[in-house]
Structure formats: C-alpha cells, structure tokens
Amino acid sequence: MALDGKVAVVTGANSGIGEAIATELAASGARLLLVARDEQRLDAVRQAALAAGAGACEALAVDVAAPGASAEIVRAALRLGEGIDVLVPCAGIFNPESIWETSIDNFDAVLGINVRAPYELILHARPHLRREASIVLISSILGSVGFPSASAYSASKGAIEMLVRCLARELAEREIRINAIAPGIIKTAINRDAIDGDPKYAAWLLERIPLGHIGAPEQVAPTVTFLASRAASYITGAVIAVDGGWVAE
Question: What is the H or E stretch that residue 109 is in?
Fold first, then answer.
C-alpha cells in the first residue's frame, strides 16, 4: 500500500481519526498537506508525520468552512506537487442535541462542515486530481443507524454516503475513485469524557459492538490508506464500516 511521492491532503488532521490518518499516510511515504484550525497542535502532527516517513509535510491552519478555504487548501497542496493524488476531507463536528433543544443554526453548522465543506473541497480540487486519484470521505455508522440526539449528524453522514455513490459514477471516466469509511464508536477527544465518565453509557455501547471493545483511531486509519492505494484500484462507490460489527446486527 505504498504511496511514495503521492500528494495527499487531510483535513481535520490535528487530532483523533484525522491525526491517525495523517500518520498512516506519512508512513506510506506520501507528501502531505495537513489542514486544521489549531496551528500549534497541527505543527506537532506535522513533526510526527515527518518522523513517520512522510516524503514531505506542510501544515495549513484554516477553518474548512470559511469562505475561500477550499481554494486556499488546493493552492497549498499544489506546492507539494503538480497534482493531487489523495484527498481525505476528515474535518467534522458532532454536536448532539435532541429535537426538543436544537435549533436550525445547529443543523446548518453540522451540515456545513460535514457535507458542504468536503463537497466544496472536491469541487476546487477537481481540475487538479490526477488520473487514478483517490478520494476518501468520512461517514459514520450513524449514517445508516439511528442514534439519540444525533439527527443533524446522522443526516450529514447519510448525505456523505450518497455523495460517494453519485460521484463514483461521475468521476470514473477519469479513473478517479471515491469511497468512504464509516467508523463506529471510536474513542477520541470528542467523546472520551462521556465514555470514561459514565459507566452505564459505556456498557450500553459495548453491548452493541460484537468485537467487545470501543475502537481507537489507529484501528480506523489503515482502511483509509488501503482505499488510497493501488491495492484498492477496483473499489469505488463503497462505504466500508470500521465499527467492530455494530451495523452487522
């Protein structure tokens, strides 16, 4: 699954699954552009990526939902090479609110970052995607199963999965592949306090995971590297669950 010399872009790269993906791609020899809002944390991930074996690594501190951000990301990526080989829009938010407490502003914010921003980035990257490039989007098991207080987030992930299926048909003429991964319950900074601080909630989650444990970002990232590589050259339009068996129920 070597990616030596390939130019790869990872947004949301400063923590959690995004950071693990960046490290995995680096270990495969990719030339990386890492994107996130936290400049200090992003620089630490950049140093780790270089130590892991990245052919080159640059960092760009920007909010992916800000006006002009997608164009800025593409310009920065092209400084690493003549085109883009791997695009992983991983930045996302999960802001759980029930229908009784939420607002349309929350819905717009979640859909804006989780759906609009990746789509806009693909639009700006489109002229620079090399033949046989790979796009990997981030869905979730909540794109296919219901979960309390997650209607906006689940709607955003269902949208991502349909984008993958539709764009796979359109991008195939240039031999560009697009797939998604759908992580299950992965312990990150977003949910660590809820899982560690509420034994009943943790037990409820574990009851639904056939493999019997909550996942780690490092268990998700290799699937992205696989999909980005020539090893997955005949896979497009797929959504791969990385969830310990949750959706197999």
Answer: helix 104-111
Look at strands 56-61 and 31-36 and give their pairing: parallel
Q: How many residues does the chain have?
A: 249
34's tokens: 């890492």
Catalytic residues: 139-140, 153, 157
pLDDT per residue as tens digits for the range 89-106: 999 998 888 999 999 999
| Of residues 59, 63, 64, the one with CA closest to residue 43 | 59
CB 106 within 8 A of CB 97: yes
Question: Is the predicted pLDDT of residue 73 greater than 90, yes or no?
Answer: yes
Dump strand ranges (E) for 139-214. Answer: 177-183
Q: Which residues contact 53 (CB under 8 A, 6 or more apart)?
A: 26, 27, 28, 29
Shortest CA distance to 133 belongs to which of 69, 73, 195, 87?
A: 87
Rg of the chain over all Cα atoms, to the nearest angstrom:
17
- Judge if pTM exceeds 0.90: yes
3-class secondary-structure state, position 72: helix
pLDDT of 24: 97
CATH of domain 7-185+218-248: 3.40.50.720
- Asked if residues 178 and 219 have their Cβ atoms less than 8 Å apart, the reply is no
Which phi and psi (to 5°) does residue 13 adopt? -90, 5
- Measuring CA to CA, which residue among 178, 162, 174, 166 is closest to residue 232? 178
**Which structure tokens are listed for 25?**
């791609």
Predicted pLDDT of residue 194: 86
| 3-state secondary structure at position 185 | coil
